[in-house]
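sry for the spam today, last one i promise. struct tokens for design, 308 residues
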């Protein structure tokens, strides 16, 4: 039996190993998630060095090892240099990588997930700076849809009655509860609800996030008793994302062409922040693990002048 085999994949994680090697976590089309060693990748003149970077898509020739397989050859098929030149884009791409790591399988083909991630990385790389947060939320929703766990946003999860945003009322709000599966009207809200801030996390939210990271055994119980409040524009965005998530070609229309209540979505960064927080809350509940890159999203976009 041959000790070598081929696979096509994208590098999602990279860490130093030994004196000059790198340990890579790669999402491959043929084998799903694999962990392999890139020998000598940290040496200055290594042929594999540049090919072992994050978000590089390679055609790999791998050699089976006793504990970890090794990269014998790598031919780059695609890379995204623009992601590393913009902090917001790099943060967003790392966020998507975490979402993919939560849902990807090992020892099973993951072709569709691989190319779905590559498609969204391309969108992020090409996006104007003002649109990065919008493109990120679109990608998160699309990945949740691919996993079969997207939130219910068109109707109340309890009553199944359609929820229609009231754009004329600036005080209009609806609950978003991960444990319930999505949108819940106030009349049927779950008890003991801890209301999260619309765009900027409150002290209570930050304390809950810290608790989530520090006490894994209590993650779902803490989140299941919490919900967020979404205003009409934020819910409208979620509903548009849900409508577009089944057709890849229309995803960008949500940002580029759609208008809600006569307002361009590019001028509503606080609404996109609300949507991102809702999807983060939902993903952490269903994957039962924190999205650590999300804290960097807060740092990038809450401090941005456009987010005020």
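last one done:
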């Amino acid at each position: 039996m041959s000790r070598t085999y081929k696979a096509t994949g994208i590098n999602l994680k990279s860490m130093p190993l030994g004196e000059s090697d790198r340990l890579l976590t790669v999402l491959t089309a043929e084998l799903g998630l694999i962990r392999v060693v890139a020998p000598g990748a940290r040496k200055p003149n290594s042929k594999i060095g540049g090919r072992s970077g994050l978000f590089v898509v390679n055609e790999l020739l791998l050699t089976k090892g006793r504990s970890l397989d090794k990269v014998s050859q790598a031919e780059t098929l695609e890379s995204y240099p623009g992601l590393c030149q913009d902090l917001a884009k790099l943060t967003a791409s790392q966020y998507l990588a975490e979402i993919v790591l939560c849902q990807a399988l090992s020892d099973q083909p993951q072709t569709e997930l691989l190319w779905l991630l590559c498609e969204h990385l391309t969108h992020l790389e090409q996006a104007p700076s003002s649109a990065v947060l919008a493109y990120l939320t679109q990608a998160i929703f699309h990945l949740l849809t691919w996993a079969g766990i997207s939130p219910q946003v068109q109707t109340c999860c309890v009553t199944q009655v359609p929820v229609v945003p009231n754009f004329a009322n600036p005080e209009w709000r609806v609950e978003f509860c991960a444990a319930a599966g999505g949108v819940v009207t106030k009349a049927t809200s779950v008890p003991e609800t801890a209301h999260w801030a619309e765009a900027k996390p409150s002290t209570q939210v930050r304390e809950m996030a810290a608790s989530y990271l520090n006490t894994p055994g209590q993650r779902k119980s803490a989140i299941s008793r919490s919900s967020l409040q979404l205003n009409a524009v934020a819910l409208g965005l979620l509903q548009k994302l849900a409508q577009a998530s089944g057709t890849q070609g229309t995803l960008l229309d949500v940002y580029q062409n759609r208008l809600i209540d006569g307002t361009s979505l590019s001028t509503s960064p606080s609404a996109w922040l609300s949507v991102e927080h809702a999807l983060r809350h939902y993903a952490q509940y269903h994957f039962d693990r924190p999205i650590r890159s999300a804290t960097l999203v807060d740092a990038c976009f809450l401090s941005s002048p456009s987010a005020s």
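Residues 127 and 176 are 28 Å apart (CA to CA). ok im logging off now
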